[in-house]
């Protein structure tokens, strides 16, 4: 049977593998935290990190925390096809549209841009239409911001190494300004766009994650700005976050490799 504890575990290998699993799930670990999780001395955790860094499985950031290294290949898109992603997320889109009465969308990140994969359009007379297969800079979109906020800051800078793509209604103008904005989104758990994709449209979005907690897309709700309750963002944010969490569970259940 799989996942059984070996009869004679090699402790150092087992501990290193535990660290790899935590790093691949997106955790940032200090030596002290890793030692506590593994139940070992800090010196042992430090030696394990040294070995993982040497082989590219870990790297230390500017805050001296360890995160996944290039050998774990975090930047490579997860093995989830767009067809499978749409199938897994569709029920959450439909439920979100019914709950809020507004258009709901699924999007994925492609470089510095997002691409709309699917959506359920509002039935109200005044509504935001679907943009299936359309693209726009991620930093303008609520869902795009949510995905960017889930990435390593170094990856966000690399994606925008030539600066932010021009967009007529953009309100963020520099990569540094975007980085500060993404920090707020990490804290809130959702992104907001106030007429940044186009005039008259507001949106709230949350990141979708795979079974290893890696970002694979986002769900958003798009609202005509004349109807958007900016003073009560929780009205949109809570349903969007719940829809994203439900969709992420389905992705984990249906799209595992």
From TrEMBL:
<dbReference type="InterPro" id="IPR029016">
    <property type="entry name" value="GAF-like_dom_sf"/>
</dbReference>
<dbReference type="Pfam" id="PF09339">
    <property type="entry name" value="HTH_IclR"/>
</dbReference>
<dbReference type="InterPro" id="IPR036390">
    <property type="entry name" value="WH_DNA-bd_sf"/>
</dbReference>
<dbReference type="InterPro" id="IPR005471">
    <property type="entry name" value="Tscrpt_reg_IclR_N"/>
</dbReference>
<feature type="domain" description="IclR-ED">
    <location>
        <begin position="64"/>
        <end position="253"/>
    </location>
</feature>
<protein>
    <recommendedName>
        <fullName>IclR family transcriptional regulator</fullName>
    </recommendedName>
</protein>
<keyword id="KW-0238">DNA-binding</keyword>
<feature type="domain" description="HTH iclR-type">
    <location>
        <begin position="10"/>
        <end position="70"/>
    </location>
</feature>
<keyword id="KW-0805">Transcription regulation</keyword>
<dbReference type="Pfam" id="PF01614">
    <property type="entry name" value="IclR_C"/>
</dbReference>
<dbReference type="InterPro" id="IPR014757">
    <property type="entry name" value="Tscrpt_reg_IclR_C"/>
</dbReference>
<dbReference type="InterPro" id="IPR036388">
    <property type="entry name" value="WH-like_DNA-bd_sf"/>
</dbReference>
<keyword id="KW-0804">Transcription</keyword>
<dbReference type="InterPro" id="IPR050707">
    <property type="entry name" value="HTH_MetabolicPath_Reg"/>
</dbReference>
């Amino acid at each position: 049977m799989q996942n059984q504890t070996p009869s004679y575990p090699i402790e150092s290998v087992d501990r290193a593998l535990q660290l790899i699993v935590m790093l691949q799930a997106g955790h940032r670990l200090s030596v002290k935290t890793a030692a506590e999780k593994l139940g070992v001395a800090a010196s042992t955790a430090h030696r394990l990190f040294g070995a993982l860094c040497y082989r590219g499985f870990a790297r230390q950031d500017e805050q001296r925390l360890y995160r996944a290294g290039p050998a774990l290949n975090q930047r490579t898109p997860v093995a989830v096809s767009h067809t499978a992603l749409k199938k897994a997320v569709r029920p959450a889109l439909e439920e979100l549209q019914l709950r809020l009465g507004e258009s709901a969308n699924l999007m994925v990140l492609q470089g510095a841009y997002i691409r709309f994969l699917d959506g359920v359009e509002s039935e109200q007379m005044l509504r935001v239409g679907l943009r299936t297969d359309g693209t726009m800079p991620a930093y303008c979109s609520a869902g795009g911001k949510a995905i960017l906020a889930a990435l390593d800051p170094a990856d966000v800078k690399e994606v925008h190494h030539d600066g932010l793509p021009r967009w007529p209604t953009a309100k963020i103008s520099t990569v540094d300004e975007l980085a500060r904005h993404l920090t707020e989104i990490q804290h809130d758990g959702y992104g907001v766009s106030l007429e940044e994709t186009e005039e008259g449209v507001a949106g709230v979005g949350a990141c979708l994650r795979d079974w290893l907690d890696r970002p694979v897309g986002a769900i958003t709700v798009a609202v005509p700005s004349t109807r958007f309750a900016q003073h009560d963002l929780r009205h949109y944010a809570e349903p969007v976050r719940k829809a994203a969490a439900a969709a992420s569970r389905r992705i984990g259940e249906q799209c595992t490799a």
